[in-house]
Amino acid sequence: MRIDVVTIFPEYLGALDVSLIGKARREGLLEIRVHDLREHAFDRHRTVDDTPYGGGAGMVMKPEPWALALEQIAADSPLALDAEGETGRRPVLLVPTPSGQLFRQQVAQELSAADHLVVACGRYEGIDERVFHWAQEQYEVRLVSLGDYVLNGGEVAALAMVEAIGRLVPGVVGNPESLVEESHSDGLLEYPVYTKPSSWRGHDVPEILLSGDHGKIAAWRHEQQVERTQRRRPDLLERLDVSTVAQED
Ligand SMILES: Nc1c(O)cccc1[N+](=O)[O-]
């Protein structure tokens, strides 16, 4: 998968050189390029923002630098070879924004199948809305929110989304089995985990986990998932079908 990130703070994306995602880049499983939006602003001060029409506090990101950046990336896309539209596939333009669709594991799963993902990190009060309409021709535009809180820009959300998506690309996570039993992979929160020592400062590992009875351990873990989800995230249960919650025989 090819991922391009456009930002006015390229250094913010340095975390993508570290750990699993960094290793996947070095192994060629992920090709990640970070672009400085200011390189597409050509006035003397490389201006990327201006005052909002209609008044109001703050500044809005100008459309032209974004259009120039996104045009250049689209022209360089591995999907550009399909410009004749044989397959009609377009890169996904992923825009982290508080006004977007909620980013969930299912969205990460869906986007991990994309050949080319372009992440637009807004700052200030946001990006001129016309950019998202203009971009529809060359991109599948997806406005996605990490959560209902205010950040100073899209970079932190971009890091989270790129990690959540990138780790699902085949080969990035060494043992694909570990993707199966994670929180939200089956719609439930994950079960509690323990390691040595079996007794620690008066706290003991649940006996069942020392029994060696894999069937009972699996049943106990599922019960723990359902109990935790009921207690901490009842909203998730409303979205699940009964078979996931009921203990399979
Ligand atoms: N919440 C927020 C924001 O305030 C700014 C940019 C992106 C996000 N988000 O993706 O959730």
UniProtKB/TrEMBL annotation:
One of its GO terms (cellular component) is cytosol. GO terms for molecular function: tRNA (guanine(37)-N1)-methyltransferase activity. It comes from the Bacteria. It holds the Pfam family tRNA_m1G_MT. It catalyses: guanosine(37) in tRNA + S-adenosyl-L-methionine = N(1)-methylguanosine(37) in tRNA + S-adenosyl-L-homocysteine + H(+). S-adenosyl-L-methionine binds at G122, L146, G147, D148, Y149, V150, L151. It is found in: Cytoplasm. Its EC number is 2.1.1.228. GO terms for biological process: tRNA N1-guanine methylation. Residues 1-238 form the tRNA methyltransferase TRMD/TRM10-type domain. InterPro entries: Alpha/beta_knot_MTases (IPR029028), tRNA_m1G_MeTrfase_C_sf (IPR023148), tRNA_m1G_MeTrfase_TrmD (IPR002649), tRNA_m1G_MTases_N (IPR029026), tRNA_MeTrfase_TRMD/TRM10 (IPR016009). Keywords: Cytoplasm, Methyltransferase, S-adenosyl-L-methionine, Transferase, tRNA processing. Homodimer. NCBIfam families: PRK00026.1, trmD. Specifically methylates guanosine-37 in various tRNAs. Belongs to the RNA methyltransferase TrmD family. This is tRNA (guanine-N(1)-)-methyltransferase.
